[in-house]
Backbone:
């Protein structure tokens, strides 16, 4: 079956999730009518979060897409959020959510009729291509919609809201890929000073976050950041000292620890490790 024909077919299939969860990936078990043989998912969930207040260089966009493709495997769940500031059409949104099926293995295959098994195997074989096409289109659209004309960046509030959303989604293992300059600029305060990234005092800033109840609950996730410290066309001093970036990373390390998560890698701006 050609990929265009398959894509049209899968668009017509039911997207079945557990307990009413959103699932933008059509379900092969339901399509092949073999629900009674459904395999338990992997328990892994990848959450991709894109900050639309700063356009990312193409190199970072391509690297992020490659990391997502290498990480996501059959049985995994994936979620995609975008955020910027609390403006019309710019608030935090869930843009994609889905689960890839695990293939049937072992003795269970012997209990299924040949026609149903062929239908299921064909669907499973093409499901990954469908996911890459549909998720990829949404991911690219979000990245291309980023603009440095948005004067505010609500990172804390957005992460807190996303954490609340994740709490409603069961998963045993969570990984977050956060694509952002990590430079808060909101009513909380600004990480800029006189048109440059300011040198933070991590402990003082973390206390302010605590006082304003802005820590999130990210459900034990391992966090990877890409794009940290990128500067926009409005920032006159594009140079970022090593000290400035170390202080920024120290702050976010403490923030994620206070938000029930752990910062694994801090790409400033390039993330040079794979998700794991």
Residues:
């Amino acid at each position: 079956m050609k990929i265009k024909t398959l894509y049209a077919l899968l668009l017509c299939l039911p997207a079945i999730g557990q307990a009413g969860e959103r699932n933008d990936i059509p379900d092969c078990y339901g399509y092949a009518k073999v629900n009674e043989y459904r395999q338990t998912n992997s328990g892994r969930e990848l959450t991709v979060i894109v900050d639309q207040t700063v356009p990312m260089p193409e190199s970072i966009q391509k690297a992020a897409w490659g990391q997502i493709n290498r990480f996501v495997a059959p049985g995994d769940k994936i979620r995609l959020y975008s955020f910027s500031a609390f403006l019309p059409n710019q608030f935090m949104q869930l843009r994609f959510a889905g689960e890839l099926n695990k293939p049937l293995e072992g003795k269970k295959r012997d209990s299924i009729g040949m026609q149903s098994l062929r239908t299921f195997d064909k669907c499973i074989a093409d499901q990954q291509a469908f996911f890459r096409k549909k998720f990829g289109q949404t991911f690219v659209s979000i990245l291309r919609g980023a603009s440095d004309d948005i004067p505010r960046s609500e990172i804390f509030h957005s992460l807190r809201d996303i954490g609340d959303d994740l709490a409603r989604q069961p998963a045993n293992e969570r990984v977050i890929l956060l694509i952002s300059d990590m430079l808060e600029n909101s009513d909380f305060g600004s990480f800029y000073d006189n048109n440059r990234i300011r040198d933070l005092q991590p402990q003082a800033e973390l206390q302010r976050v605590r006082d304003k109840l802005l820590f999130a609950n990210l459900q034990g996730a391992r966090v990877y950041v890409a794009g940290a410290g990128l500067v926009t066309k409005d920032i006159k001093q594009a140079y970022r000292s090593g000290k400035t970036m170390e202080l920024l990373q120290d702050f976010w390390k403490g923030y994620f620890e206070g938000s029930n998560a752990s910062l694994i890698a801090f790409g400033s701006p390039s993330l040079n490790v794979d998700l794991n």
In short: DSSP finds seven helices and eight strands in the chain. Confidence is low (pLDDT under 50) at residues 14-19. The domain at 40-104+130-266 is CATH 3.40.50 (Rossmann fold).
